[in-house]
Design the sequence.
């Protein structure tokens, strides 16, 4: 059975980096992101348009490529969380969390008894066809899971100590777009209110022994938060990185063509 390398790295004190897979329905992209050097792929089943088969294929290719597949479920329901884990996700991202009791219930869905309430439905491919007893599988799965909780509102930040006290959380992930909207400064990611809220959460994470994280749309913004000590950093999406590189390439080619035209007598 596979060891969750992202989980191992989070136990240290270094930073881990990932990218969102959101719109392009190609299961090859996780392997590409692995080759680029990312630690995890953030498969978006909340805002993305993927069906369960696409998510399943992306998870499988991520595992084959050596990158940890995390899936953000659309909402906090047992069926979505448990089924996603049964598909092979090595981590769950829980969105729009504000209530500690609801969070405790959702985290319980991610683990088998006695640690949680997840029903057993692990198929042989999930175990790489290894022979293992039920107790062995349960112990392995419970200890090789990454649980990421998103903080996306003023309420969540205000209740961060209560929320982070729920057992079983590995990462507290800021959703800066929704957080900025909640704070009344939509899209102003460097606004003092947004920065103060993120720093408040990061301090609470350090007290609780949980990795503070953020998703950023640009590398420059992501770098600034890495320098501030955030350890779980998602940067960009598969389509934004493709567009960015495509624009850069076209600009370079047009600049070369203009140079040649300028040299023509």
Sequence:
């Amino acid at each position: 059975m596979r060891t969750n390398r992202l989980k191992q790295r989070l136990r240290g004190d270094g930073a881990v980096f990932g990218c969102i897979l959101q719109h392009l329905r190609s299961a090859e992209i996780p392997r590409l992101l692995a080759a680029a050097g990312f630690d995890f792929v953030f498969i978006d089943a909340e805002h993305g348009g993927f069906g369960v088969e696409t998510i399943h294929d992306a998870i499988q290719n991520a595992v084959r490529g050596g990158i940890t597949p995390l899936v953000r479920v659309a909402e906090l329901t047992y069926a979505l969380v448990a089924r996603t884990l049964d598909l092979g996700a090595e981590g769950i991202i829980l969105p729009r969390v504000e209530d500690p009791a609801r969070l405790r219930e959702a985290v319980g869905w991610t683990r088998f008894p006695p640690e949680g309430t997840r029903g057993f439905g692990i198929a042989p491919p999930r175990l790489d066809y290894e022979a293992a007893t039920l107790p062995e599988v349960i112990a392995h799965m419970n200890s090789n899971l990454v649980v990421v909780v998103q903080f996306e509102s003023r309420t969540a930040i205000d209740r961060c100590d209560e929320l982070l006290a729920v057992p079983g959380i590995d990462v507290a992930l800021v959703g800066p777009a929704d957080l900025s909207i909640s704070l009344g400064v939509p899209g102003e990611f460097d606004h003092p209110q947004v920065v103060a809220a993120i720093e408040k959460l990061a301090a609470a994470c350090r007290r609780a022994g949980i990795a503070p994280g953020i998703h950023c749309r640009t590398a420059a913004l992501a770098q600034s938060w890495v320098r501030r000590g955030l350890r779980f950093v998602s940067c960009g999406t598969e389509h934004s990185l493709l567009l960015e590189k495509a624009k850069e390439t076209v600009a370079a080619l047009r600049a070369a063509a203009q140079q040649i035209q300028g040299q023509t007598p």
